[in-house]
Amino acid sequence: MSAQSPSRQRWLIPVLVVVLSVTVAGGLVARELYHTSADDVQSGVMPITVPSSTSHDSRSEPGSGRVEITPDVAGHPAGQAVLAVLQTYFDALNAKNYAMWRQTVTTARIQNTSQSAWHTEFRSTKDGSILVYRIEEAADNSLSVLVGFTSTQSIDEAPANFQYPCIRWRLELPMRIEGGGYRIDIVQSGSGSGSGSGVERERC
Questions:
Q1: Prediction pTM value
Q2: How do residues 152-172 score in pLDDT, each as one tens digit?
Q3: Are 43 and 120 a contacting pair, CB within 8 Å?
């Protein structure tokens, strides 16, 4: 093979420099794209948003009395109606307003709880950190509403077999149409944490 002429070597040098520059730049771009892609994958899982009312220290228990709902509940046809009833229900409990509470529950539940017994049972109770997880259709056009909340109360007003000043609850509230709107029916309670019919509870 014949040796390359000096003139040809002279124009090959800048060509090689350009090729090397493009190669290095391409490698840097590829590296940047890789890291960007990796970061996107790591951050691609959307965090579960917990209402701010559920994150607080023990001194601020039970938290906000505002009822929060999940996107699933917000998209349910009865979601807004259920939210309105539950907000009034918890407002009545926190304000110790029996007349307001009566507007949110069924006749059967009213008959099951006298006004004097109601005031005695909820005298020191405050409810907060309220979140409606889901709404499910039940028999006879009724609903089963899963609600979580925190309650604080004096020890003597806590459940007899679960006497703590702060309790986190998860209840399946039965709701049915009565008087032209949804009302909360009698809740079937159990004997302990996680063992009741539609009732779970744990110490704060």
A1: 0.68
A2: 999 988 888 899 999 999 999
A3: no
